[in-house]
Amino acid sequence: MKLLLIYTGGTIGMVPSDRGWRPQPGYLESRIRSHVRQEDMDVEFDWLEYNPLIDSSHINIAHWNTLAEDIVAHYHDYDGFVVLHGTDTMAYTSSILNFMLRGTRKPVILTGSQIPVWESHTDGLDNVALALQHAQRRDLHEVYLAFNQTLFHGAHVTKIDTDGLKTFAAPHGVHLAATGEKEASQPRCIPASDAAIEVYYCLPGNSLQGLSALLKTQPRALIMSTYGSGNAPDSPELREMLKVAQNQGTLLINRSQCYRANVDMDRYEAAAALRETGLIGSGTMTLEALTAKLRVLLTLFDNDVDIAQQLLLPWTQELPPINAS
Ligand code: ASP
């Protein structure tokens, strides 16, 4: 069993600077190797450290494409992959890798920490140990996030705490459906699209000016962040605005602001206008999984009908059963 650890940055290897915490190159590997030896862990791994290391709030499409390409390039050399990543956008990265990586059947486990490894009370070493353990499993074939004793499916998870060690949660419960004996085909990666995906957050009391300004930028996709099961205040102006946007080539999607979301535009009259305008409901997907899948679908398809159809067709486990736990 041999693993590849890819270190992208994040708090796990940060040090203080006069402008706040920042990643420190060249140090984390030896700290982790000495921990592995100390704990007598039976694991062999190679280390790939990115340059520059980043705070994960700087993550962009190019980083995701490099990460997915590196995993595919080294696919046959290793039995599993661990990606060390900052927590701020870890759920976006664990989501998108699930869609970008095709034909792979080895575990890819993301982890990081809230407290750097140099601190005596760090959570980083436990998290890395958990990730190393799961990266050696032969029954895991997708992309996961390991944190605070829990293994999440990478497309189920969201960051819920800026400070606490229970940093992530899966809104619909921790639900790791077996992927079965996935057929190994030629591993490849689908690049993520950098098309503009905007989110409009409904807020009681706001006029439609903000939405109007956003739509003038003609984003490729607009996610309406609605209330409850996908409801929004209705008005002829709103309907007209959305129709014009659609005609100009913006894909319109309805995702609830609710933490545990399940968009159902048939439930309330307050969603009827959005349904009639042709918004696509995002079901139980997290915002992270939804935007991740969109970035891959926008690479593959030009046609909105194809994108809408694929969006609600499970590719991985991005549509968890309601309230699974
Ligand atoms: N700002 C840090 C990052 O995402 C937070 C962390 O790693 O916990 O890189």
UniProtKB/TrEMBL annotation:
L-asparaginase N-terminal domain residues: 2-179
InterPro entries xrefs: Asp/glu_Ase-like_sf (IPR036152), Asparaginase/glutaminase-like (IPR006034), Asparaginase/glutaminase_AS2 (IPR027475), Asparaginase_C (IPR040919), L-asparaginase_C (IPR027473), L-asparaginase_I (IPR041725), L-asparaginase_N (IPR027474), L-asparaginase_N_sf (IPR037152)
Domain Asparaginase/glutaminase C-terminal, chain residue ranges per copy: 197-307
Annotated catalytic residues: T87
Gene3D superfamilies, per the entry: 3.40.50.40, L-asparaginase, N-terminal domain (3.40.50.1170)
Annotated transmembrane regions: none
Domain of life, source organism: Bacteria
PROSITE patterns from the UniProt entry: ASN_GLN_ASE_2, ASN_GLN_ASE_3
One family name in Pfam for this protein: Asparaginase
PANTHER family for the chain: 60 KDA LYSOPHOSPHOLIPASE, L-ASPARAGINASE
Protein name as it appears in the record: Asparaginase
Taxonomic source organism: Saccharospirillum mangrovi
